[in-house]
UniProtKB/TrEMBL annotation, chain A:
It is found in: Endoplasmic reticulum membrane. This is Uncharacterized protein. Belongs to the PIGG/PIGN/PIGO family. PIGO subfamily. Residues 847-869 are annotated as: Disordered. It comes from Choiromyces venosus 120613-1.
UniProtKB/TrEMBL annotation, chain B:
Pathway: Glycolipid biosynthesis; glycosylphosphatidylinositol-anchor biosynthesis. This is PIG-F-domain-containing protein. It comes from Choiromyces venosus 120613-1. The lineage of its organism: Eukaryota, Fungi, Dikarya, Ascomycota, Pezizomycotina. It holds the Pfam family PIG-F. It is found in: Endoplasmic reticulum membrane. Keywords: Endoplasmic reticulum, GPI-anchor biosynthesis, Membrane, Transmembrane, Transmembrane helix.
Length: 1086, 226
């Protein structure tokens, strides 16, 4: 109410002055108001208008203009909606093809609980004999030779013709094959097919859990690498077996605390240039442990050699370094064979292969084909039974050899060692390991193990469907296999001793069918890149970039005029596209035509086809409208140095995602861009006249300084070490803020409002609601936010030891809620009903003319009066739009500062200052129409993403921000809080974009709306180009070694940023500009 | 009066007779810089700090001689009687020395601040960064200071990128642009020795300076398309 009144009072005062002047019988009917502004600003002469003007004509005209404004504003919102639609569809299609999610179930198999259910006669449950199945071995030595490709292990050529095609890697690693062919009952050598991606981390997950890899294993522990799922190692621990480990330190990250503390020897794995440290380290520790004196200390021994992999990365397979390495490994195997006892199983395997260049990560045949060698001094292995199809299953390996899947190792090892099969396992027991001498006992054993495996898979599948809420496609037919298998089993069991080999074989085939069909169904759901969908997504995104680019930078003149044509045609295009895809689907459905639909041809589901056709139609519609309005079209190429700079920044930023090392250093690169802009602005200011030069120089130096200052705060990602030092938290190994950052927060609470105030003051805009809003409200909010973080630190660090438990937590949550409410609730409401930052002063011209008082410094001196009319001064009119809209930014900034950790909050405060300094710079250099403003705001946002302690990695997400205003997780608020914490800077800069057009803009409305539209869409353009770059590079580099570490997270960040920026612009920015424009228009006309 | 005439006459004749040699002098300067840089590059990579120090006096001397020999000083503001002022060799040497002094102190300080602002490490590697700034200042700033003195108006044109293209200005633009581009390969994860700070920046500045200087010589009198 208060603010309402103040708005009215301004109008009343102004109108009063108007009528007063009229009464005093001067000539003019419309009084000219002299606007007090800055000296260097051209003085706009504005006529005061009002919806409540006494003149009905004027009133009518204003009302009409207000409606016209609202109409064109709504059209703009609709247009943005179309852009958002295109972005959404593009990202949706790409994501559906690229990121496949799988639910991680935390259930564990247990030794005591049979997978077969309670009604079955079951003799298991005893660890000493073997939990689910009688065990074959007590101990095991598992050797992983990283990147051991299958063809490294088989002899190549014969003695005579060693001239053709023999490579360095051939015939070097010979012992396994020699033993397996000489003693087939003691050893088996098989191609061991990996599920892509063939990276060590994902492979180790597969080799221990028995499940398929996907990028996002959506489970309880989303952030870390620790395997939550049931796995071999945790089963070993659960039944009390002791595991020793040496080699690649990835294991330590995956299975913390599961190895025996005195028998774990991890080695740094990432240094590809070092071929020997890890291998020598493993050798140093493994052989002493194998010595009979130490053999009782462990049950399972895991060794992971990296030399072969590193030799591949560094030199490629056809190099003598590789040969040396393989020969060394051969020696290791020979020594291991000598060292183990009768009761120990020796497994040597590769976790993946390598491509011809020696790299891996993708899904080429060479990368997928690793080798598996199992050896025992007891003759336990059997030959592959003649009655089975050696090429059955989805895992095709090299011709002439039977292949097994890597996940098959999990049930095999579990059952051989007498462990329960891990809950998530989808693999099958390896036939040779259980067939033994063959005959009926062999088949019976195979039926037993395959039945146990299948039963566990069935348990898993039931649990998964229950958790996921939807069934895996085609599950009915798979379940019918289960029923058939059980039917056959009971038939065979009825036969008793009369059962033949063929009968048992039939049952086995059914159970293994069940396993392989489930696996196939799961793989279809989880583990394939859908290239068509990805390409469709990239196409739509690229189209949207073209559309936004043409709209944002291609049109000349008034934007509001073309919007309706564009909208009509886009809507028509959308409709036509949708109708075509629906009709296409219907025709295909009517089977008698026998025409497959386009969607079927492309392998896209009807929904995706509909979205694709609709968005392509929209894009085509837009360009047909562009063709229609071609006379309004200008070249998209930059016509000034600033435009070229924008192009360089945007393109360079989107191209860095093609290189892993540039992507890693994105934070530094963005600082570099910003400094470049500041420096160019500094140079460019030298071209201006004296006053503007001083201003431009000052603001660009402030900008440069702030950029560097905020870049000090950073949280290094793993790949940046050792060239980077984290400053975000109190130390490199903690995630707690240092107490000194709290001091920064309190200083900021006192200082930042004054700084903002100073930017308001020099256009005399620090009047009206501004002092209350900024000087009081914002300051109080910042103090409370600092108090919140002080309480948080006190709680974490137990600063007040005497305080009873449970006092600080509710207190700080309440403070957090208050700040959020102040920023988002009270702030937005106050913004909506606030008046403009304007003050009216009536002056006697004769009195005011001589000697301006010191605080009059910034004001314009009115032209020398001809008569003794009193002059109405409007203080703050030269930044009417800007000062009004900026208050929205202030209130949102308050909430976003609270959601950041103390150091991040300080970074957000700096960001607000930087925005102001940038706006002044843009105004001084007359760049309000250029693309540079929105682009620099985008870069600023992305740059502060890093200085608020984030990185483009999943592990840097600050999950705890969900608990700032709440003590428990609440949907949908908690995810929104985490997003607001993660990309708060991008959201704040998106909010600030209209200011590029509004800051110190003349108080007109229609024209300014067009400029605002241009600025806002340019900002969207920047973000969509960056996201397109990240998306296209992630899709293109889907076989890259670093896909899951670097490119995928960056793509996800890009997608989230684009959609969130779109949403903020559509909802908050559009609403904010509408409110601001209406309140300006009410006073000054449209 | 007559002495001045003779002097002028003498000057003219000497400049005529040696004009061919004079014209090649800027290129000799470029060639010396190029040759020295290429020969010193391996030691720059292996030990940037001491190489940069060791090269600094040489570069200062080279630039000083180049300024005296090849550059014509901007005439002081034509406030005088219009009488042609002849700048003696000693005053040239002093100006050149002062320009070098200015560049290695104030110019280098400004460039050092600029390097830090662009993201150079502020707390570590201080010494190499300072040396990098001094080298860049000797290349970019010293000739400009010698040529334009500290004339505010001209300097504003130079900073604003509006000055007439000639060797000094184009060389300075080239040196700064080269140093800017030189930062590009730093993050590339190739683990090469030459990627270490500030080798790429210095290399960029030198290469840029030589390219810019030669272009400035080839296209004098033009203006940058900004």
């Amino acid at each position: 109410m208060r603010t309402r009144r103040s708005l009215n009072s301004i109008r009343q005062a102004a109108l009063g002055a108007q009528s007063q002047l009229q009464n005093s019988s001067t000539i003019s009917t419309a009084t000219t108001l002299h606007l007090a502004g800055k000296k260097e600003d051209e003085e706009p002469e504005i006529k005061l208008a009002s919806a409540h003007s006494p003149d009905p004509e004027v009133r009518k005209r204003n009302l009409f203009q207000q409606r016209a404004f609202k109409f064109s504003h709504s059209l703009l919102v609709l247009l943005l909606l179309f852009f958002v639609f295109l972005h959404g569809v593009g990202l949706f299609l790409f994501t559906k093809g690229f990121l496949l999610t799988r639910l991680v179930l935390s259930e564990k198999s247990s030794c005591d609980i049979s997978p077969l259910g309670s009604g079955v006669n079951w003799k298991g449950g005893d660890i000493a004999k073997g939990c689910w199945h009688p065990k074959t071995f007590n101990k095991a030595v598992v050797i992983v030779i990283d990147a051991l490709r299958y063809d490294f292990t088989v002899p190549f050529g014969s003695e005579e013709d060693n001239s053709t095609g023999v490579r360095q890697f051939h015939n070097a690693f010979t012992t396994p094959h020699a033993i397996a062919s000489k003693h087939p009952r003691n050893a088996i050598l098989l191609p061991f097919i990996a599920d892509p991606p063939t990276t060590t981390l994902q492979r180790l997950k597969g080799l221990t859990t028995g499940t398929l890899p996907t990028f996002i294993d959506a489970g309880s522990n989303f952030a870390g690498q620790v395997i939550d799922e049931d796995n071999l190692i945790s089963q070993l621990k659960a039944v009390g077996k002791r595991t020793a480990f040496m080699g690649d330190d990835t294991w330590m990250a995956l299975f913390p605390g599961l190895f025996e503390g005195d028998m774990e020897y991890p080695y740094e794995s990432l240094n590809v240039w070092d071929l020997h440290t890890v291998d020598n380290g493993v050798n140093e520790h493994i052989f002493p442990l194998l010595h009979s004196a130490n053999a009782s200390r462990w049950d399972v021994l895991i060794g992971h050699y990296l030399g072969v992999d590193h030799a591949g990365h560094r030199y490629g397979p056809d190099h003598f370094a590789m040969r040396e390495k393989l020969v060394q490994m051969n020696g290791v195997i020979e020594k291991l064979v000598e060292s183990i006892d009768d009761d120990t199983l020796l497994v040597a395997m590769g976790d993946h292969g390598m491509d011809p260049k020696g790299d891996h990560g993708g899904e080429s045949q060479g990368e997928l084909e690793a080798a598996l060698w199992m050896y025992s001094k007891k003759p336990v292995f059997g030959e592959f039974p003649a009655g089975l199809d050696p090429d059955g299953g989805d895992y095709s390996g090299p011709p002439g050899a039977r292949s097994v899947a890597q996940i098959d190792l999990v049930p095999t090892l579990s059952l051989l060692l007498g462990l329960p099969i891990p809950f998530n396992n989808l693999g099958a027991p390896i036939v040779e390991a259980f067939y033994g001498k063959g005959g009926v006992p062999g088949w019976k054993n195979l039926v037993d193990v395959s039945r146990l495996t299948a039963a566990q898979i069935k348990r898993y599948q039931a649990e998964y469907s229950g958790k996921n809420g939807e069934e895996v496609e085609g599950i009915e037919s798979i379940n019918s296999i289960w029923d058939t298998a059980y039917q056959k089993l009971s038939n065979v069991q009825k036969l008793g001793r009369k059962a033949q080999v063929a009968d048992w074989q039939n049952v086995f085939i059914e159970f293994s069918n069940y396993q392989s069909e489930t696996l196939r169904a799961c793989r279809n759901v989880w583990a394939r890149f859908d290239l068509v969908s990805m390409a469709a997504g990239v196409t739509v995104l690229a189209g949207s970039v073209a559309v936004v680019a043409v709209y944002a930078r291609g049109f000349t003149g008034d934007y509001t005029e073309i919007t309706d044509t564009l909208l009509t045609r886009m809507a028509k295009g959308l409709g036509v596209g949708a109708v075509i895809s629906v009709v296409d689907g219907i025709i295909a459905r009517a089977e008698r035509f026998g025409i497959p639909s386009l969607g079927q041809l492309l392998g896209l589901s009807p929904l995706r086809m509909l979205l694709l056709a609709g968005s392509l139609g929209t894009i085509i519609g837009f360009f047909s409208a562009t063709h229609y309005a071609r006379r309004r079209l200008a070249s998209l190429l930059p016509n000034s140095g600033w435009g070229a700079l924008c192009l360089v920044f945007t393109l360079a930023h989107s191209l860095i995602f093609g290189s892993n090392s540039f992507t890693i250093w994105e934070d530094k690169i963005l600082t570099y861009f910003l400094a470049t802009f500041g420096f160019v602005a500094l140079l460019s200011s030298q071209r201006l006249d004296t006053v503007k030069r001083a201003l431009g120089t000052y603001h660009s130096i402030v900008f440069l300084f702030l950029v560097r200052l905020s870049s000090i705060s950073r949280l290094c990602r793993e790949e940046q070490i050792p060239f980077c030092e984290s400053t975000f938290y109190s130390s490199a190994s903690s995630s707690v803020s240092a107490p000194r950052t709290l001091v920064i927060l309190f200083i900021m609470a006192l200082g930042l409002p004054s700084i903002i105030g100073s930017y308001y003051r020099h256009t005399n805009s620090y009047s009206g609601p501004a002092p209350v809003y900024i000087g009081f409200g914002f300051r109080l909010g910042l103090l409370l936010s600092a108090l919140y973080w002080a309480l948080d630190s006190a709680d974490n660090g137990n600063w007040i030891p005497d305080l009873p438990e449970g006092v600080l937590k509710p207190l700080k949550t309440t403070v957090g809620q208050i700040v959020i409410a102040m920023g988002l609730l009270a702030g937005n409401l106050a913004y909506a009903y606030s008046s403009v930052c304007l003050d009216v002063r009536l002056e006697d011209p004769l009195a005011s003319q001589p000697a301006p008082s010191p605080d009059d410094d910034d004001e314009d001196v009115a032209p020398p009066p001809q008569s003794s009319k009193p002059i109405v001064r409007l203080l703050g009119a030269s930044n009417l739009h800007g000062s009004r809209y900026f208050m929205l930014l202030v209130s949102w900034c308050l909430a976003l500062i609270l959601l950041q950790k103390p150091m991040g909050g300080a970074s957000m405060g700096l960001l607000l200052w930087q925005i102001l300094s940038l706006l002044e710079l843009l105004h001084t250099l007359s760049l309000s129409d250029s693309a540079i403003g929105p682009v620099i705001l985008g870069i600023l946002g992305n740059s502060h993403f890093f200085s608020t302690g984030h990185q483009a990695t999943l592990s840097s997400i600050q999950w705890e921000s969900a608990f700032i205003p709440f003590s428990t997780i609440r949907y949908p608020w908690s995810p929104m809080l985490v997003i607001a914490n993660s990309i708060g800077p991008q959201l704040l800069t998106a909010l600030a974009v209209p200011l590029v057009a509004l800051w110190k803009a003349p108080p007109t409305v229609t024209e300014t709306l067009g400029k605002t539209a241009k600025a806002v869409t340019t900002h969207i353009l920047y973000h969509s180009v960056i996201t397109l770059g990240a998306v296209a590079c992630a899709g293109h580099l889907r076989r890259h070694l670093m896909l899951y570490r670097i490119f995928s997270p960056r793509f996800m960040l890009g997608g989230v940023v684009l959609l969130a920026v779109d949403a903020v612009i559509l909802l908050v920015v559009m609403w904010g500009t509408r409110v601001s424009f209406l309140s300006v228009g009410e006073l000054f006309g449209y | 009066m007559s002495t001045t005439q003779t002097h002028n006459h003498l000057r003219r004749t000497t400049s005529n007779s040696t004009s061919a040699m004079r014209a090649t002098e800027p290129h000799i300067h470029t060639a010396i810089i190029a040759g020295t840089f290429i020969s010193a590059f391996p030691s720059l990579v292996s030990d940037p700090g001491s190489t940069l120090i060791w090269a600094l006096p040489g570069l200062a001397l080279l630039q000083a001689v180049y300024q005296v020999r090849c550059l014509r000083m901007l005439k002081p503001t034509p406030s005088g009687s219009g009488k042609k002022e002849v700048i003696g060799i000693s005053s040239k040497i002093i100006s050149s020395f002062l320009a070098i002094l200015f560049a290695t102190t104030i110019g280098a300080a400004a460039l050092y601040v600029l390097l830090i602002l662009f993201g150079a490490p502020a707390t570590t590697h201080v010494f190499p960064t300072v040396l990098c700034a001094m080298h860049t200042a000797l290349l970019a700033v010293a000739p400009l200071v010698y040529k334009y003195r500290l004339e505010g108006r001209v300097w504003r044109e130079v900073l604003g990128g509006r000055a007439v293209v000639e060797e000094c200005f184009a060389g300075a633009v080239g040196a700064l642009g080269g140093a800017w581009v030189g930062a590009v390969p730093i993050p590339l994860g190739m683990d090469r020795e030459w990627q270490k700070w500030p080798v790429t920046i210095v290399t960029g500045a030198y290469v840029g300076y030589m390219v810019g200087k030669s272009l400035g010589w080839a296209f004098p009198g033009k203006r940058l398309p900004l």
